From TrEMBL:
Protein's recorded name: LacI family transcriptional regulator
Keywords of the record: Signal
Stated family: Belongs to the bacterial solute-binding protein 2 family.
Keyword Signal found: yes
A Pfam cross-reference name: Peripla_BP_4
Organism of derivation: Agromyces rhizosphaerae
Keyword Signal: yes
């Protein structure tokens, strides 16, 4: 290849193929499945890529080990959806030393942005703000007991969705009575909600803020099993806007959904192309999110790709 410092040899491989290692978080949610599909479609053989895919089952140490394997294999570029924000400095430095560009997609890291080429994803804090603003509109003035299902502990979306929401409801009559991680999974949401219901009863909870649709969907099962009516006895706000989430919104079981767009593959592939061409890119590329009421969801659900 023509690249002097690269661990691999970029698009200048003999066969023109670009080898990309992609370290995915795992397969915790409907959002994640859509994101994986989007990445696989963008980094396809037809598009000239040889994609080495790893899903780390949400184990941060396993994900770092996968990235280290990519470096040792001498891939041309590495794409990471970082499970958690912390702990990336060493392995990103190793990739940098090996001359392999790293593109982050979806989640951010706390490491210096000198250690990677660029990040593309969503503004998680703004998603939390949108959710919190809706809660204030609906509930401020009435004493409201809220529980929270958090995403993966230490992940950027769990951290930032909490911050955006908490800032938005500050000074309102909404009281957070409990908050625990449901790991962004349906099972996790169900189990943690069962615990909340045992502790406070259906009558002791007015509002649930779930950091993603899957946990909200799990919580709906728990509320129904406890004899409650989701969306009425306990109102629900969630984030992602995958089809199952929008359907529950249309059915009145969820009351408000904030979108998190998982279709980041082509944007990530563009960044890989730019990195291998030696171009400079913005360090952070934000994709816009929308919000949905039941009516708005009904108008778009048939056209949604995920
Ligand atoms: O990082 C994005 C989050 O990860 C999504 O909101 C959640 O569903 C996923 O698992």
């Amino acid at each position: 290849g023509c690249s002097s410092s690269s661990g691999g040899d970029g698009s200048a491989d003999g066969d023109g193929t670009v080898t990309v290692g992609f370290a995915q978080t795992g397969s915790e949610s409907g959002w994640r499945s859509a994101n994986t599909e989007s990445m696989k479609a963008a980094f396809s053989t037809e598009n000239g890529y040889d994609l080495v895919f790893n899903a780390a089952d949400n184990d941060p140490a396993a994900q770092i080990a996968a990235v280290r394997d990519f470096i040792n294999q001498g891939v041309d570029a590495i794409v990471i959806a970082p499970i958690v924000e912390d702990g990336w400095d060493d392995v990103l430095q190793e990739a940098s030393d090996a001359g392999i560009p790293v593109i982050l997609e979806d989640r951010t890291v706390s490491a210096s942005d000198d250690l990677y080429y660029s990040w593309v994803g969503l503004d998680f804090e703004r998603e939390g703000t949108y959710a919190g603003e809706w809660a204030v509109e609906q509930f401020d003035g009435t004493p409201t007991k809220m529980v929270v299902l958090e995403g993966t502990t230490g992940s950027a979306p769990a951290n930032d969705r909490a911050t955006g929401f908490d800032d938005a409801i500050a000074g309102s009559t909404i009281e957070k009575i409990d908050s625990q991680t449901g790991e962004f999974t349906r099972d996790g949401g169900k189990t943690v909600m069962e615990g909340f219901l045992q502790k406070y009863g259906v009558d002791g909870i007015d509002l649930l803020y779930a950091h993603n649709d899957d946990m909200a969907l799990g919580a709906i099962e728990a509320i129904e099993a406890a004899g409650g009516v989701p969306g009425e006895d306990i109102q629900i706000i969630s984030i992602d806007a995958v089809k199952d989430g929008l359907q529950a919104l249309i059915d009145g079981k969820i009351n408000y959904v904030v979108e998190c767009n998982p279709l980041l593959g082509e944007l990530a592939a563009d960044l890989v192309t730019q990195a291998l061409a030696g171009d400079t890119a913005e360090k952070a590329i934000y994709v816009d999110d929308e919000t949905f009421t039941a009516e708005e969801a009904a108008a778009v659900i048939d056209q949604r790709a995920y």
